[in-house]
Specification:
Layout (H helix, E strand, L loop, with lengths): L2 H11 L2 E3 L5 E3 L10 E6 L4 E5 L5 H10 L9 H9 L4 E10 L13 E4 L3 H6 L7 E7 L2 E11 L3 E8 L8 H15 L3 E7 L3 H9 L3 E11 L1
Parallel strand pairs: 9-10
Antiparallel strand pairs: 1-2, 3-4, 3-11, 5-10, 5-11, 6-7, 7-8, 8-9
Helix pairs in contact: 2-3
Length: about 220
């Protein structure tokens, strides 16, 4: 798959699609955090830029005129245009990674699957997210866990958490590796993402030796 394919796959996971004109549309009625504007720098050096189909025609024209001039990650001109039309936006900056196929053959015995109904999972606060949680448990207490924050038939995105007194011991690496290997064996492409200023998550991505597929800027209406 090309980096652009990964971008659109991850967008679909978030409930974001494109219409026939290449504009952003929600794939279902209750999509959360739907962007007004999305600008991605792909790992092959190319960029992708889209704005919401719901914007007025004149606003779309103004945005379209600025897109060829954009240099990632500077979108201040786009923010200024939204402000001219009295639309306040909030900027989000994220990195999205792919797990190499070698994860499919990994065996991580310390992390094991738990049902979301398991009392340990409920105590940890990871119930109601996905049917299966991959976790390190000792003496009846979950110390670290990874679960699909989003998942469909094609891809999934990791959500990992480790109890504060157990951080820095490599447990996050263990549970994410087990989650990713299970996704790959099921034919599902796993993603890992973090906000640009989330240093612990960035360090975890580095320890996992993940492949940065794209970096994106999203502008959401406030």
């Amino acid at each position: 798959m090309k980096p652009l394919d990964f971008l659109y796959l991850q967008m679909k996971l978030e409930g974001i699609g494109l219409n026939e004109h290449g504009h952003l549309i929600p794939l279902y009625s209750d999509v959360e955090d739907f962007p007004m504007f999305l600008f991605a720098q792909l790992n092959d050096g190319k960029t992708a830029c889209h704005f919401a189909a719901s914007l007025s025609g004149v606003l779309q024209t103004s945005l379209g005129e600025q897109i060829p001039c954009l240099q990632f990650p500077n979108v201040q001109k786009i923010i200024d245009i939204f402000e001219e039309y009295s639309i306040k936006v909030e900027l989000g900056h994220f990195k999205i990674y792919w797990f190499p196929e070698q994860y499919q053959d990994m065996v991580e015995n310390e992390a094991r699957p738990f049902s979301e109904d398991d009392p340990c999972v409920q105590a940890f606060g990871f119930d109601g997210l996905s049917d299966t949680v991959y976790a390190v448990e000792r003496e009846g207490e979950i110390l670290s866990a990874c679960v699909s924050s989003r998942q469909n038939n094609y891809s999934a995105e990791a959500w990992v958490m480790t109890t504060p007194n157990q951080r820095g011991k490599g447990l996050g690496t263990i549970v994410v590796s087990r989650w990713a290997s299970e996704m790959l064996r099921a034919g599902i492409i796993p993603f890992y993402s973090h906000a640009i200023d989330n240093v612990p998550s960035a360090r975890l991505a580095d320890r996992l030796d993940l492949v940065l597929m794209f970096e994106e800027i999203v502008l959401e209406e406030t």
